[in-house]
Write a structure and sequence with these properties.
Shape: rod-shaped
Distance between the termini: 98 Å
Number of helices: 2
Radius of gyration: 36 Å
Structural class: mainly alpha
Amino acid sequence: MTDWFKRFVGPNLVPFASEMVSQFVANLTQLPTKRVMRRLRESKDRMEALHNKAREEKSLMERYHQAALKAKEDSSPQSGRIFKTPKRITRNSL
């Protein structure tokens, strides 16, 4: 590679030009990797945030459900039973 640079920049600047080009090439090859890794980290963070949000919503729904069951149980005249038995439907009741 240094022979190639000698033709264009002269013998004094060959090490400098060679180093610059090698750094440039290294950066070019690392950029796609960095970009992909950044996207993976971002999607992992989004997935974790969605998971936390779903867990919070599930917990909230469970609390509301428990509160509704307790309120229904407290307001029911039959304290031991949560659900009432359905009435039988007969021809006369229709």
